[in-house]
Amino acid sequence: MHDIELIQLRRFVTLVEEGTFIDAAQKLNVTQQALSSSIARMEESAGVRFLDRKRGGRPSLTVFGRLLLARARTQLALAERMASEIELLRDARGGSVTIGIGETMTGRHVATAIRRYHRQQPDVQIRLVEGYTEMMIEKLMLGEVDFVCGGPSHDPAHADLLDFRHLFEIRDVLAVRKNHPLAGARELALRDLQDFTWMMPAFRGDIYEAIQVAHMRAKLPPPKRIIRSDAVTVGFWLCIDDDYIITVSPDMLGTLIELGALTTLDISETTILRHACLITRRDVKLSPAAVRLTEEITFEAERAYGSPADLATPAFP
Fold first, then answer.
1. Helix crossing, 6-18 with 21-28: angle to 10°?
2. By the 8 A CB rule, do 276 and 170 touch?
3. Same-domain status, 130 and 217
């Protein structure tokens, strides 16, 4: 049975689907004799009959033939998938890929995926563009980036234009320098943060609104000392050198946390939950090189955070 080849399986399946040796031979572009000999060799190798041949009628499947048909279709599908993956990998070895990196996807797992991809496809030129997800989506719509790693879009105009593949969820954190008076404190409440200056993004208002709402629920006045900045590096230096509080995605803090320059506070009342996505345009087909890179990023996100419940969600409300 191990001597049966894919070409024989393909001929067998075609015969069953077409119904007659004449029609199957024509579709396969072989002679009826060649087709009949191919089926006979399979039966001889297996030691059983796959077909009941009736003179002048359509051949019917035996019990062994029905089993072979199911397994043959599976084997042919796997072979076609393997061939397409090999072709994709071959075609992905050249060209260039430009990625828009949003604030939700700036962590090490993305860098790990890019590094692994670059080892496999060293001739592909990779360009990274970083900014808020909304800005990266605009670049995507203009064709300036191939795809975006970031958060979901809240713009209904994007619902029919973009695909969002949900990867993982991550909650913002509050961070301070390691020598901050609140560093290491447990069970903090909002009232404990009242005397300190807050750092938050200027471009986006969702964090600012979340902080306002949290203080209202706690029946506290909102923070009066606020610095709003989209200059990320400057903001980090301000927090490292003074007793400010910064609210940010933990992915953006990875290196500073590891180096001990900043530490997170044990409080979550003011933070928001972020959804990390791979964002592509529906009307633009990704190049093989870009497809391979999205696969690496998806794999690394699943390895780091686990497989999401839904890998192809629409824009989040």
1. 130
2. yes
3. no
* Residue 121 structural domain: 96-170+274-305
Q: How many domains does the chain have?
A: 3
pLDDT, tens digit, for every residue of 160-201? 899 999 988 888 889 999 999 999 888 888 899 989 999 988
CB distance 261 to 177 below 8 Å: yes
Report the CATH number that the domain containing residue 264 is assigned in CATH. 3.40.190.10
CATH number, domain of 26, equals: 1.10.10.10
pTM, two decimals, is: 0.61
Tokens of 220: 């506290």
Q: Verify that 53 and 27 share a domain, yes or no.
A: yes
Buried b (16+ CB within 10 A) or exposed e, 105-119: bbbebbebbbeebee
Q: Bridge partners of 162?
A: 281
32 shares its domain with 162? no
What is the per-residue pLDDT across 35-86, written as a single tens digit (0 to 9) for each? 889 888 888 888 899 998 776 567 889 999 889 988 888 888 888 877 766 6
